[in-house]
Amino acid sequence: MSERINTRVLVIGGGPGGYVAAIRAGQLGLDTTLVESDTLGGTCLIRGCIPSKAMIHVAGEFETMAKAASAGLNGITLASAPTLDMTKTVAWKEGIVGKLTGGVATLLKRAKVRVVQGWAEFSDAKTCTVVTKDGKSQTIAAEHVILANGSLPVALPHLPFGGAVISSTEALSLDTLPKRLVVVGAGYIGLELGIAFRKMGSDVTVVEALDHILPLYDAQLVEPVHKWLTKHGVTLHLGAKAKSLVEKKKDVALAVETKDGAVLEIPADKILVTVGRKPNTEGWGLENMAVDMAGRFVKVDDQCRTSMKNVWAIGDLVGEPMLAHKASAQGEMVAEIIAGHKRRFNPAAIAAVCFTEPEIVSAGLLPGEAPKNDVIVAQFPFAANGRALSMDAQEGFVRVLARADDHRILGIQAVGAHVSELSAEFAHALEMGATLEDIAGTIHVHPTLSEAFHESALKALGHAIHI
Amino acid sequence: MGRYVFKLPDVGEGTAEAEIVAWHVAVGDRVEEDQNLVDVMTDKATVEMTSPVSGIVVSLNGNPGDMAPVGAPLVELDVEGAGNVKANGHAKASAPAQTSTPPLPQKTGRGENAEIPLSPTGGEGKRDAIAARAGEGAVKPALQAKAPSTPAIATRAAGTKPLASPSVRARAEELGIKLQFVPGTGSAGRISHADLDAYVTSGGATSNARSGGYAARDGVEEIKVIGLRRKIAEKMQEAKRRIPHFAYVEEIDMTELEALRAHLNATKQAGQPKLTLLPFLMRGLVKILPHYPQINARFDDEAGIVHRHAAVHIGIATQTANGLIVPVVRHAEARDIWDSALEVARVAAAARDNKATKDELSGSTITITSLGALGGVVTTPVINHPEVAIIGPNAIVERPVVRGGQIVVRKMMNLSSSFDHRVVDGYDAAEFIQKLKGLLEHPATLFME
User: Fold this and answer.
1) Within 13 Å, how many C-alpha atoms sit on residue A116's CB side?
2) CATH fold of the domain at A3-47+90-152+278-338
3) In terms of domains, do B90 and B165 share one?
4) Tens digits of per-residue pLDDT, B343-398?
5) Nearest by CB: B173 against A344, A348, A437
6) Full-prediction pTM beyond 0.80?
7) In this structure, are B190 and B80 located in the same domain?
8) Cα of B155 to nearest chain A Cα, Å
9) Is the complex ipTM more than 0.95?
10) Of B70, B99, B128, which residue sits at a domain end?
11) Is residue B222, in this structure, part of any structural domain at all?
12) C-alpha atoms less than 13 angstroms from C-alpha of A429 in its C-beta half-sphere
């Protein structure tokens, strides 16, 4: 005899979409239940954004020290080379993750959200059964269901995960540093991790089927990253296909067909496959809910309604961009709509960041996405920015794209060290409907990287000062 | 280097002066020999003035619309070699900018507010400045002064996203208002909370119907009435001021004539033009006009003499890209129907291509103005002074009419006409039109003696 819970709102998934939806629903006084089979926090907190940033930070520190030890760095020298204890690094990272996931649990509790630990399986659109770890089963019936099941790493059919072949999840929890790492897929996840491992001392090879890295961005924007990879001895095989795993006596190798048709065997300790993520649509009874699909994603409208009344879906499950901040915004919105508010998901921009070396941030349109004759594009190099020079980070630029007729800003990109923190101003400018004159008329603090944004707007208006 | 002065030549036919219509060069331009410098217009024709030499334009004298007497210096050029005047022969050469460019049509718009200062005086000014900064529109002119090129009410083209901050968008959503329909007063048409308030207060459909993405427009464009337009204006005013018009309209059954026309067009030989109604109407006029000599006439009202013409020169009112022109089919009485059609087509094309000669543009004794192709029931055409009559056929439409006690469908056309009542009596004019009607309704009689 299973226990039965009746709830107003049922949230499936405790990631940045689901937990935000649940907290907001709780705040609004809705009786809310959240089901999560793993730790609260989802991919983002447990095996995505946060842990990868922790590893990237450690990698950066290590690289700086290694430089100081080998050749000296701006006056710093170290007597001996730094060493890296991977287990301690991973433990430190787990500590951060623990703090954040614990925080999520506290916030949910404060919002009076009932959290059920276990795997939910739907029998119809409003009813699911959750089998908990101790084998008990609970049936939950809800008035509203918010699906926030997230996404999973895509495996290559001829290169399944297991053994030496790992996904980003395993890459963030290795106990030793792989001496030779092959990264398959030069998207942002592969490059972020590949660069971090390179900084920590791994020999890194990147295999990408397309002809360029970071295919979402234009060549100009990825150029500094490309330059870094080349300069730091990362081997790039572009236009190349990962064929198969070759088992050797002592280790493994990856067979790769290069652009010119040659087949290489690249010996590796670990092969990291980062060829994308897919919505998590299987194994929890989605097929019993009678909701329409849009390709591999769950189909929703601009209020995140599915085709089934009072079933909502948010985050990676409903489409690109698969970003935590998009999921959170949708979760918050859905909770408010259920509470009777009138809301609609119509952001002017969802900014995205690559924590590569250097970092890339993009908000709004890229130059290639706007009719060429109707827009002004202007960029300002960090080589002419005092703060960038003082951080030994002169690589990169800020670029602004605006309508030629009324100067409304349509897109802003930057590449350079620490530019991820500029994303807030970029998104804000777009959401507020800023024109070039608005940015030009805002006094930006000296000395900061943000001055480059100010200057790019001035340049678009034809009167940059520092260039 | 020498200086060459290009003077307005005698453009012929005893013209004493010509109007500058359009400059084709600007000060500083390099011009080659035979390059078009300026278009001037005499009483009848627009003439292109080409440069007799190569050189660099130093000054232009006169603006479009100005009258220039023959012999007046129009363009000064720096040329290789001696030129035709001494270097300092013309004082004007030292101040070329004075007359360098024709003034653009003045736009009276909001751009004029650009000079209003942000802060008038003292403490008040500071408050205003702060209000302006808050973007609530307390100091509208000052806000506009920042971006004079942006209209206060942006006309939002279909498909253009309305510009508004997230809080404005959220409020609009709560209010159930589509921002696409809300006029924005901010730069780039950004919608502020105040704009949303104004839209709500006005009940959505504002008093001046600012809704549905439609925006009220301000500003007046001043168009100089020059060139052909001025000629037309003068002619029309002259005709209406001098001539006491009276209009007469009759209904004509065109069924048989249309049948004949269709037959002729179907069986015409190669090289023969397609017949419109015009040649038939012309044929009708030349048949009746000898009986009404007072209608085929030109009235010199200053001398008090009516010139009754034996020849029938028919003016054909023609719409051109520049405006109304009336080319003339001369001696229509000596042309058969095919020849009339050919000649109408030729002179109309010449007028449209701006290639009609003075002869082809003057001397008509009666004019036909046909708006029939556009539809229309009646026109009250303006007489082409100094003529005394004008005929305006209207559209042919199928209408039920009574014939022999039966309602039948006939192709009916109204024929509008105006006459100079000083020299044409109403009775005669009516009789004239009735005779014309008789000919057109029995088309065989058009061709019988």
Assistant:
1) 27
2) FAD/NAD(P)-binding domain (3.50.50)
3) no
4) 999 999 999 988 888 888 889 999 999 887 888 899 999 999 999 999 999 999 99
5) A344
6) no
7) no
8) 11
9) no
10) B99
11) no
12) 32
